[in-house]
Amino acid sequence: MSARKLSMIVFRCLQLGFIALVAAHVCLDWGYPGWWDFLPLVLAYALIAVVNRLGGAPDAPRAARAPVEVAPPVAGRWSALNSPADRTPSHGVHAYGQTYAIDLVAEPEPGARPGFSFVWPLARRGTDFPAYGAPLFAVADATVVRAEDRQRDHLSRTSLPGLLYLTLMEGSVREMSGVRRILGNHLVLDLGDGTYAAYAHLRRGSLTVREGDTVRVGQVLARVGNSGNSSEPHLHFQLMDGPDPDTARGVPFTWRGIGVPRGGEVFDAPEPTPTAPA
Asked: Cα(202)–Cα(172) distance, rounded to whole angstroms?
């Protein structure tokens, strides 16, 4: 086990220790000073700071690499969110290899995707969103190194109360539960040359491949869902320099014939034609 992986495990255990101490203090009315409850939390972030300084933290960016050109993972009319064309890290942090990650939502026609609501409805079903169930394609000839699709697809978090719940409560619990609970159902492909492609928030039971399978560019791999730390059905896509998002660092990408769409930009991706096995 790498030092970075071990540091993330210890970090999460200390976070859980903080919650356990607070619960015990409240329920058992322990007499020690309340600030002691925060000791595990202080140690958790001190650990990350120390590992960062030593250059081994998973959120420490490496020297920039040239963008890797791959095929688009979707087909049809889509819109980009949280794009690395606008800023890096695109999601605000380098952790989990998402420095150059991008989110995609389907936009087959104006108004097809439900908008954000301040109060009602609190949540919507996945089938209300055009991205839900859309096929996802291999961006290159590759080998499947991680594959999971047993987590449930939850309701959307596209209202103000839902988004606050996701940000303040659900997201924190998923953070402490590990990277698989953040990504939800996901897939990681080994593209070769130290580059890996990750697809996250996939639909439960939709994977057409297993770990160890060899795939060809354009092959259908899974379908869009709303599992993991997700506000609505969408694809979270990224390239990384390792197979484990807990320890990998992001790698920039460009989609063949498209480039990197900016946030809010609508683009059309052609229907792929899978290549025959060599």
From this structure: 20
The values of phi and psi at residue 26, to 5°, are -70, -45
What would the two tokens of residue 174 be?
């998923």
Q: 278 is written with which tokens?
A: 């060599």
Amino acid at 187: L
CA distances from 115 to 56, 121, 231 (A): 41, 11, 12
Query: Cα–Cα distance between 90 and 102 in angstroms, integer?
Result: 7
Taking only the tens of pLDDT, the chain with its 278 residues reads 555 666 666 666 666 665 665 566 556 555 555 555 656 656 665 655 555 544 444 554 555 678 999 999 999 999 999 999 999 988 888 888 899 999 999 988 777 777 777 778 777 787 888 899 999 999 999 999 999 999 999 887 777 776 676 566 666 677 767 788 889 999 999 999 999 999 999 999 999 999 999 999 999 999 999 998 888 899 999 999 999 988 899 999 999 999 999 999 999 999 887 665 55
Q: Look up tokens 């699709």; give the residue.
A: 149
